[in-house]
Amino acid sequence: MTTLDSFTLLQPYKIAEETFVIPWALEAPPVGHFPMNSMVIRGAEPILVDTGAPAVRAQWLEAAWSVVDPLDVRWIFLTHDDRDHAGNLLAVLAECPNATLLTTWFSIGRMAEEWDTPINRCRFMTDGDTIDAGDRTLVAKRPPLYDNPTTRALFDPKTNVLWAVDTFATNVPAPMPETAAMSPDEFRDGQLFGGRLVSPWVALLDAQKFGTVVTDFQHLNAEVIAGCHCPVLRGPQIPEAYDLLRRLPEVPPWTEFTQADLDQWMAAAESSVPPEQPRPSGT
Ligand SMILES: [Fe+2]
Ligand SMILES: [Fe+2]
C-alpha cells in the first residue's frame, strides 16, 4: 500500500485487488489542498471511473495508461459532467476505441455546451442500474451529497470498493493516499467543511429524511471508500465519516471567504515580495 513517503501526485496507487486511484491535488490556500482523484478498475473488462481534470490532461493520460492499456479499456463510467470528472473525456474516448461510455441523458446534454459526445458509444446507467463487467457487476447509486444533478456513485461488490464521487470531500493539510494519515481533528473538520462546501443545500434538509438516505448508502457496506476529493477511507473512519455526514443538516452553514479576506491575502502576498531592485544603468 502506498505510504505518505512514497506518495506522488498522478502516480496511481493500489487500493484493492485490481483497483487503483490516480491522485491529483489542488493547492487551496488557506485550507491546504483538495484531492482531485480518479479511479481505474483493471478487471476482466477494465473500467475508468471518471477522466480527470483538463489542467493535467497529458499527465493524467500517462498515469492511466501506466495501469491499463487504453485498447483494453472496455468501460468509462462518468459520475457526472463536472470539469474535474469529465475534463478529459474526449481524449479518453479517442484513445480507448473499444470503450463504452456509461453516462446519462442529462450529462450528455450538459456537455453539449462544449462538445458533442458520440451517442453511439454511450450507454445510459442511472441510479440503481448495474453493469456486468465480466468478473464483477458494478452498481450505480446516487450518493447523499453531490454538486451536480447527474451524479451517481459506483460500488464494486467484488472488492467492496465504493467510489463516492463528491461525497466525503475534504481539504487535507498535504496530499496523502489515505485519511488514516489525518489527525482526528483534521478528519472531522475536513468532513464537515467539505460536505458543506460541495453541497451547501445540506443546511436545508430535514435531518431525519437525510439520515435515511445516508443509512441506505451506508448499507452498501463498503470496506474501502475512494472519491474524487478525499484520500481513501477505511476501517473505523468509514462509520465515523457516515456519522459526520448525518450531522451536516444541523451544522451551521460554512461562511464564504469575503472580499476582506482576499484583500488581506493580496496585501500579505505583496509584503512578502522583495522590492524591485533598481536596474544597473546601461541595461
Ligand atoms: Fe462535482
Ligand atoms: Fe468533483
What name goes with the CATH superfamily?
Ribonuclease Z/Hydroxyacylglutathione hydrolase-like
Count of individual domains: 1
Our measurement of the CA-to-CA distance between the termini, rounded to an integer number of angstroms, reads 56 Å
Whole-angstrom Rg: 20 Å
Derived from helix and strand composition plus strand pairing, the structural class reads alpha/beta
Proportion in β-strands: 15-25%
Write down the CATH class: Alpha Beta
Mind summarizing the main beta sheet?
7 strands, mixed
Unreliable residue stretches: none
Q: What's the CATH topology name?
A: Metallo-beta-lactamase, Chain A
DSSP summary, beta strand count: 15
What is the spatial order of strands in the main beta sheet? 1-2-5-6-7-8-9
Written overview of the protein:
This is Metallo-beta-lactamase domain-containing protein. It comes from Streptomyces gardneri. Residues 35-196 form the Metallo-beta-lactamase domain. This protein has 283 residues and is α/β, with parallel strands linked by helices. The chain has one domain (13-272): Ribonuclease Z/Hydroxyacylglutathione hydrolase-like (Metallo-beta-lactamase, Chain A), CATH 3.60.15.10. 29% of the residues lie in helices and 19% in strands. It has 8 helices and 15 strands. The protein has helices at 57-67, 83-86, 89-95, 105-111, 184-198, 207-218, 237-247, 259-272; strands at 13-16, 19-22, 25-27, 33-35, 38-41, 47-49, 75-77, 100-103, 122-124, 130-132, 137-141, 153-156, 161-163, 224-227, 230-234. α5 (184-198) crosses α7 and α6 (207-218) runs antiparallel to α7. The N and C termini lie far apart (56 Å). The model has no long low-confidence stretch (mean pLDDT 95). One fe (ii) ion (FE2) is lined by residues 80, 82, 147-148, 166.
